[in-house]
Prior knowledge:
Blueprint: H1 2-20, E1 31-45, E2 54-65, E3 71-79, E4 85-87, E5 92-93, E6 100-106, H2 107-111, E7 115-124, E8 133-143, H3 144-151, E9 157-163, E10 170-180
Antiparallel strand pairs: 1-5, 1-6, 1-10, 2-3, 2-4, 2-7, 7-8, 9-10
Amino acid sequence: xKTTHFLLKLLMITLLxxxxxxxxxxxxxxxxxxxxxxxxLFAYQMPPTEGGALEVYGTMSTKKILGDDTxxxxxxxxxxxxxxxxxxxxxxxxxxxxxxxxxxxxxxEIRDGAEIEVNVNMMDKDPDGNPDDFLGEESKLNPVGIIxxxxxxxxxxxxxxxxxxxxxxxxxxxxxxxxxxx
Length: 182
């Protein structure tokens, strides 16, 4: 009886020691990462009075929105009125430093309906003294579950926003969202 009792205590101590020295917790949540990138701008339509290109400035940003209304926002591309970029009828690539951001989400956050939103707000500088043209403000919510399905083709998911608030000008803004796998 004493031997059985001793063996049970020894077994419990062994189990406790082996569990406490294990670096991998069985309750550790898996994490998934997603890269959001500002890709480019394209003047799909513009009047001849623009001289073949728009003088665009504004902001492109992204947000991670969780089910409990927690929001994490990052600016991917930003230009002010004096630092505009010329956008014509061919794609203007945005490969600048800081034009992408990686969000990390837990399995629970994804299961609870996490979303990644892309946002854009753009103006066209009017150099002749007239007020600048408001091109538009748009956003699109992208449920992370859909991103995982779409991006599982080893290609980032393409997200396009169209700004057409100013008569005669249509600006296409492109983002990509990539599900990063190890």
